[in-house]
Task: structure prediction
Amino acid sequence: GRVFQYQPYQPEIRHETIAKAQADSCMEKYKCVLFQAEEELKQLIEGSELDEEEKKIFQAHIDIVQDEEMSREIEDEIRDNLLSPQWAIQEVYERYIQIISKAKNALIRERAADLKDVCQRLIRLWDGGHENPLSSLAGDVIVVAQDLLPSDTAAMKTEYVKAIVTEVGGYTSHMAILARNYGIPAVLGVADIMKNTENGQKIAVDAKDGKVITHLTVDQEKQYQVMREEYLKKISDMRQYLPLVPETLDKTRIEVCLNIGSADKSELELESYTDGVGLFRTEFLYMSKKALPEEEEQFRVYKKIVTMYGERPVIIRTLDIGGDKKLDYLELPREDNPFLGLRALRLCFEMKPIFKTQLRALLRAAVYGNLWIMFPMVGSIGDIRFAKQIVEEVKEELREENISCRTDVKVGIMIEIPSIALMADIAASEVDFASIGTNDLCQYLMAVDRLNPSVAKYYQSFHPAMFRLIRQIVEEFGKQKKPVSVCGEMGGNPQAVALLAGLGVRKFSMNASSLASVKKMLSQMDICKAERMARTVLELSTAVQVEEYIKSELPD
Ligand code: PEP
Ligand code: MG
Result:
């Protein structure tokens, strides 16, 4: 495909003054920018993609653009104080943002995000910039970028994206997980790819071998065309395994569930081939919005999914923001080590109203199906108890308000921090279930940033230490007959699934794109062999040995 270099828009505000003679022309241009902003917002509202809640937000943005008082102040700054127009816009908006951010009422405080958004829009238009180009792609491209945020990936017109290449990111970064979910080949951590390519250049991306070929010979081009056809055929042949009941040769039944990030049709296409949803990453619901989704909106999404799955469990994880997942509209303190910082449950404890809104929507939606609530980034028994206490408070509030909700919802945890893995015996007595998040578990166990390409070789999810720790979790939960699943990327890797099934895991949750290959592997595996392999792996010394061993046992 052809390269499309993505550069995120970054306003560069020059704090300069203008000459008095320029004031009139600047005022003219400022009025033009206001008009363009209004037109852009109207087009957004008229676009069919937005729901009613989102339309209301953009309508409010139009009101801000039309606000006469703010415009008058900006004009004064340009005319009287001779500030450059971008500076004047930023100055006045910042003034209002400051006032609003101090409001006692949380709803008013949240409006600061709208002001920031409008301010960015005006400054971008002043610079002649357009909307996020990834959301308006019109033809097939290979997206090449220094970095892509999960929100960039979520905004992307995926049907036109043939592949993604970035300079940063790792196998379990959320951008990679999203790409895998959409079935888009991606190669991450390619140093200087922006410098070494240009827009429109024809390149080949071989995501199986992690290669990017930037200068293609005619022969190579032909060769890659053939490889692509073969690969697409293999994927389509693999679909024959989708309807299989997931069980091993000796009829050990393994539950196979989906990881999802929305209630969109495309995410739920394979629903009938699964035993439920093993992980709904709700933060993607928050990331695709311009403001915090309200209770009603969340309730509708959760209700839709649980209704669709009927009796099958749907595990919905509460908000997991922080790390590489940010919300444009929610300002969080800058942290040196965001993966070790105020992330997920810790952030929810700090922002209780946001947490409670989500819990209200979940408890209400639970009436319509088999909804299980799961907390991310649990580090201690204290975290579990505090989270459960908030759930109880929310139940009580709903009861007082006479709002129908379910009070016997199963509550569980993600095991992704080693401290809670080592406390699995006590954790198991405090919760109804657990799911092992191997992406973070590996990051925290091996002390390797999951996004940093320069330490990617230390991120070893097949390290014997991972299997030893997982064995302990599975044994402790097993003793108390509490279900435990695996929902990190290992849960969709057929080789890892074989070893984990050998350790006793009976439930896996994965991206839709892994479903067929995992079912295929299970249908050809004997559980005794899986157990034997797992026993061997627990005794090996290095990740390389584990990988070589598993390749020798499962050559396919
Ligand atoms: C994990 O950490 O394994 C997990 C499933 O959660 P996430 O990838 O969203 O952090
Ligand atoms: Mg995680």
User: Anything to note?
Assistant: The chain is about 50% helix and 10% strand. The pocket of magnesium ion (ligand 2) is lined by residues 376, 416, 437, 439-440 (CB under 6 Å).
